[in-house]
Amino acid sequence: MTQISATHSPFSSRSRSGSNTDISILAFLFLLPFAVLVEFDFVGQLFLADIITIATFPFIVWRWRLFDSLTQRTVVLLGLWLAAQILTDLINGTPTDDLMRGWSKIGLTLMNLIMFTILVGDKPGRTRALLAGVGGAMLLGAIINYAPHNPFMLWKMGGVSGLMILSLALLTGAKRRHYYVAVGILTAGGTLALYYNARSVTLFCFVAALFLCISILGHKQQQLRQRGLSLIKLGFISVAGLVSILVVFEFYSFAVQSGWLGQAALTKFLMQGGDKGPIALLLCGRVEWAASLKAIFDNPILGHGSWARDMAYRFAMNQDLFAYGCPVSDYFIFESDLIPSHSLLLGAWVEAGIIGAIFWATATYIIAQFLKFAFSQRHVLVPLLTFIAVQLLWDIYFSPFGASRRLTTAAMLVALLQTIRYYRFSLYESEHLG
User: Fold this and answer.
1) Is residue 117, in this structure, part of any structural domain at all?
2) 423, containing H or E segment
3) What's the angle, vertex CA 31, arms to CA 30 and CA 36, rounded to 5?
4) Is the pLDDT score of 280 beyond 70?
5) Is 6 among the domain residues?
6) If you compute the radius of gyration of the chain from its CA atoms, what whole number of angstroms results?
7) Is the pLDDT score of 5 beyond 50?
8) How many CB atoms lie within 10 A of CB 37?
9) What's the pLDDT score for residue 149?
10) How far apart are CA 30 and CA 123, in angstroms?
11) CA 115 to CA 47: how far, in whole Å?
């Protein structure tokens, strides 16, 4: 394992503090995500966490310093996404309520990203506190929203993900035994998610567990740790990831068609074309792609504005999905006049144009850089961030921008960027400082 000089490294123990200020920051980072559970009705969803961020931001932003180029680029691109959204809304004449929702969504994400970057700095302990808060808030939110009337949905709608993030934040670290503990936690979480038919979370857990198992082997290769991954090894990891996804699908397909998961799971599986293979299940399980792509092709540069509305895309989506053999109910067509998008990237592209898509493409690059590092070198946050990276990668392409994402996604990106900084500094010291 490459060692980092305590004299030079911002990640060394000398950078840690036991002061009251440091304890206050840890408490703030841990507790802020729980403020998402307090909600107000003000031009959409406004959380107590948003109010705290807006009130705190002016006192923190002046501490900004030049971080690594990737962090700087991420902040700039997020700012450009906001600027593009403002320009698009002004040109399209977006209604005031809708543009306020769109601008606040991106603006608060930007503020949280900057604030978290400054507060966590290069201290993994602070990042762990922030992510533990994110996981705890997700779990508590699922309990509050679903436990009283639908305990089954509790684990499907954020319960398992929150439990995984909280458990990995509290119970894992950089030692090899911590990696084995993480694999056990993820396997248990995947099994729980499978039982409750939370298919995407099942995938996150098992893929992350397999990645950690493979990375344990990678840690044994000194040359790999020092020089990173060759294209051949990177290709091997990619193929292994694809195979793992197919294995999870085949196991799930067998389980659901054997009746292990109940009649409701079987009915949903067949309606969404699961018996025709994983691609059919993906296309029919995330039907919004048909409307999103058509809207993007119609206006790829500028976009359609915040909370873009046009029923024509819903009717066209219905026709396209019928041609692909995907069932779509009339309720889904008429439940809203918003252009459907079940993807962070496609949703940003529909509303803000190509700049929004570029930001999420950059987020994909950040995830790829982290996974490259995570395979080659142990780090205290790798077991936790591997699960988060897999989940965030899925969300970029297959999940919508829910209101709480302006905090949770910012926290996840900051954690990934911090760990990439550590890796690059480690590599620099090993090559230039002996």
Assistant:
1) yes
2) helix 405-432
3) 120
4) no
5) no
6) 22
7) no
8) 16
9) 79
10) 14
11) 17
Q: Tell me how many domains the chain contains.
A: 1
**How many other C-beta atoms can be found within 10 angstroms of the C-beta atom of residue 420?**
20
Confidence label for 153 from pLDDT (cuts 50, 70 and 90): confident
- Backbone φ and ψ for 8, nearest 5 degrees, come out as -105, -25
Of 328, 242, 245, 349, the residue nearest 285 (C-alpha): 328
Six token digits for residue 240? 């292994």
Range of the domain at 107: 19-230+301-307+340-432
pLDDT one-digit tens code per residue, 255-275: 777 777 777 777 777 766 666
One-letter amino acid at 377 equals Q
Alpha-carbon distance of 372 to 162, in angstroms, equals 25
Task: Please give the structure tokens belonging to residue 347.
Answer: 């949703």
| Tokens encoding 84 | 């593009």
**Residue that the structure tokens 């009130």 belong to:** 55
In a domain, 4, yes or no: no
How far, in Å, CA of 271 to CA of 329, rounded? 11
Q: Angle, to 10 degrees, between the axis of helix 69-92 and the axis of helix 354-376?
A: 160
Give the DSSP letter string of 39-95. Answer: EEESSSEEEHHHHHHHHHHHHHGGG-----HHHHHHHHHHHHHHHHHHHHHHHHT--
Across 114-143, b (16+ Cβ under 10 Å) vs e yields: bbbbbbbbbbbbbbbbbbbbbbbbbbbbbe
Residue type, 161: S
For 180-220, how does the pLDDT look when each residue is reduced to its tens digit (9 = 90+)? Answer: 999 999 999 999 998 888 888 998 999 999 889 888 876 55
Q: What is the pTM (predicted TM-score) of this model?
A: 0.88
Tokens 């190509």 correspond to what residue?
354
Q: Is 309 helix (H, G, I), strand (E, B) or coil?
A: strand
Q: How far apart are the first and last CA of the chain?
A: 13
**47-60 b/e (C-beta count within 10 Å ≥ 16 → b):** bebbebbeeebeeb
| Mean per-residue pLDDT, 54-60 | 95
